[in-house]
Amino acid sequence: MNRVDRLFGIVTLLQSRKYVSAERISEKFEISVRTVYRDIKAIGEAGIPVSFEPNRGYFIIPGYFTPPVSFTLEEANTLLLSQSLIGGFGDRSVQATFESAITKIRSVLKQVDKEKVAILDESIKLQLPERLTFEFEYLAQIQHAITEQTQIKITYQSLKDERLERIIEPIGLVFYAFSWHLIGYCQLRKDYRDFKVERIEKLYKTSCPFEVTQHIPLSAYKLPVNY
């Protein structure tokens, strides 16, 4: 991350919280506390009124920014609940992007609503079985391929422990049987197939467009009845 992006990120973080400590900024952006001090100074010199309260942290003086988008407290609370669900059922790629989105949403809330959301944030917990963890980082790439309608290449471990190479035209993601599944058109088999995402060992994005001009809708794909 270059410095300009980092400074913008720090400003967004400051907008999303009532107070932010130098240590929290240091941890989030993986920089030293001394660098935080320099960045805060640069933000102030750019005309953004950042102040500091001992034992609490930095904050942007209320009223400086006019939020470009407004959210009701109920909408923000619903998104906060979604954050817990994404944290439990998403992989690392989706969790990272959703956390970034939530931070931006927090930044445009009224100060009083930020405080209420912070209380709710500490009052929501999603308890899942230990086996239900998603260590892969493919969901965001698959989503991108679906929206851009581009092929992906995967190395896949079959149920017979065979390592397979496949070129797929993804049409959707389905969560069933406690796992994420990629549904896509297999170039080799010339048919639609179900690939369990956790069995994907490698995934490569390509710039090749779909060869099939009209895929079936995801709802038309027959999922297993008993699983």
Automatic annotation (TrEMBL):
SUPFAM superfamilies in the record: Winged helix' DNA-binding domain
Residue intervals of the WYL domain: 137-203
InterPro entries on file: CBASS_pafABC_assoc_protein (IPR051534), HTH_11 (IPR013196), WH-like_DNA-bd_sf (IPR036388), WH_DNA-bd_sf (IPR036390), WYL_dom (IPR026881)
Name of a matching Pfam family: HTH_11
Annotated ranges, domain Helix-turn-helix type: 6-58
Designated name of the protein: YafY family transcriptional regulator
The species this protein was found in: Fluviicola chungangensis
Taxon lineage: Bacteria, Pseudomonadati, Bacteroidota, Flavobacteriia, Flavobacteriales
